[in-house]
Amino acid sequence: MDITTIAIAAIVGLIIGLGIAKILEKGKASKTISNAKKEAFSIIKEAKIEGESVKKDKIFQAKEKFLELKAEHEKVIVNKNKKIAESEKRTRDKESQVSGELAKNRKLNEQLELKLKDVHHKLDLYEKKQSELEKLHSSQVKQLEVISGLSAEDAKSQLLESLKETAKSDAMAYLQATLEETKLTAQQEAKKIVINTIQRIGTEEAVENCVSVFNLESDDVKGRIIGREGRNIRALESATGVEIIVDDTPEAIILSCFDSVRREVARLSLHKLVTDGRIHPARIEEIVRKTEKQIEQEIVEVGKRTVIDLGIHGLHPELIKAVGRMKYRSSYGQNLLQHSREVAKLCGVMAAELGLNPKIAKRAGLLHDIGKVPNTEAEVETPHAILGMQWAEKYGEKPDVCNAIGAHHDEIEMTTLISPIVQVCDAISGARPGARRQVLDSYIQRLKDLEDIAFAFTGVQKAYAIQAGRELRVIVESEKVSDEKSAQLSFEISQKIQTDMTYPGQVKVTVIRETRSVNVAK
């Protein structure tokens, strides 16, 4: 019973405590709510006050902005009014100017009408005088016919006969000059052919192109090269086909042969023999055979390197070998391989500029002189352009390339656009100063002398020697030299050059007369 009573008492106490706590919490919550309401009321009051102040500031700012915009607008209106006033003023000025121009034009029209009347009057007088002049002319002609005993037709025929005689004499003089020029050109062409033939077959007179100098460390080696009773030197000459000259020249032996390949074989063989020290006929023949094989391989390698450098593909091995042999040939003192490489590059550039195939042009430029390295004596007698064309056809080159090779010296007719390009580039490579055997100082002096001859004539303003001295271009002053005088001046300059100078080929004299009228538009 005591435990039950205690439990009941505890439960009742707990209930009473919960109730009291509930009552206390409710009072506290009501107090918190009242405080929150007071705080919210104060916040709302402060927000209203702050909103009113913000509202007043915004209204004030809006009024200031309105006044500012209004002032700017008034300025714009004032500027527009000012511009309108200025435009009206300009318009009034233009109207007054136009009215003045109209008045002036009316006066000019009146003056023009008066001048037209005067012109019509003068025309009438001119027609009258013309009729009178014709009558006088006819009467004078009749009087002359009576005095001379000839009719007008007879006098005309006699005048024509005299003019014909003068024209015939002038024509004969021109024909004679043309014939002399043709003979001179023919002589020059003949000299070219002779020189080309000499360089291809290599006679003894062409010393510069047929001689190599082999340097020795000492003159003691000369005796060993000669051998007992000259057997070594005879064996070497027999094996190489080169004439070996041993004279008093210190530390040097001269190798003479028209074939530069054989001369190179002899030079390399001598170098190997002297380096090895064993010099006797059997050793000489062995070394020469090895050197010949080495030169043949080098020729092929040179040809391959050349076609690779130029970007040419598909060339026949025999043509590659011919290209390599050009390293040991010269044309007028110019290395033939170097000349052909230059021509190939020039042809490629020119063909590209003209919109043609640069690869075909390069191919034709490289092969254009392969006929200068013939294999047999029978081929030497064929012109090198024709021989080169025959080789190209034999080894499967295209017709364009074959025609360019055969026509670059006009042996055959040109049928493709590549042919004149190869001809021009060949002339460019050969004619440039220093390319072929020619003294540069004399070349420059000749050009200066050409220009000085032109400046010696009155009325010449400028003179230029161009195209390696093949043309003299003269610019004259139009006030001092007339068109008729230009032709006469060209003839006189050409005659002066012909009598006072020595030059290869021909010199073309071009006289240019130009009239310019210049005005300035303001």
Helix share, percent: over 70%
What is the molecular shape? flat
> How many strands appear in the DSSP assignment?
8
Q: Which parts are unreliable, with pLDDT below 50 for 5 consecutive residues or more? A: 197-208
Question: What does the model show?
Answer:
- The chain is mainly alpha-helical and 522 residues long.
- The protein is 72% helix and 7% strand.
- The protein contains 16 helices and eight strands.
- The strands form three sheets. It has a three-stranded antiparallel beta sheet.
- Strand 2 (243-245) and strand 3 (252-256) form a beta hairpin.
- Helix 9 (336-353) packs across helix 14.
- The radius of gyration is 54 Å and the shape is flat.
Topology (SSEs and partners):
Layout lengths: L1 H147 L3 H50 L5 H4 E5 L4 H7 L4 H10 L2 E3 L6 E5 L3 H17 L4 H30 L6 H9 L4 E2 L2 E2 H18 L4 H10 L9 H4 L3 H11 L4 H9 L10 H14 L8 H16 L4 E7 L4 E6 L6 H18 L7 E6 L9
Parallel strand pairs: 7-8
Antiparallel strand pairs: 1-3, 2-3, 4-5, 6-7
Helix pairs in contact: 5-7, 6-7, 7-8, 9-10, 9-14, 10-13, 10-14, 12-13, 13-14
Short recap of the structure:
The protein has 522 residues and is mostly helical. It is built from 16 helices and eight strands. The chain has helices at 2-148, 152-201, 207-210, 220-226, 231-240, 260-276, 281-310, 317-325, 336-353, 358-367, 377-380, 384-394, 399-407, 418-431, 440-455, 483-500; strands at 211-215, 243-245, 252-256, 330-331, 334-335, 460-466, 471-476, 508-513.
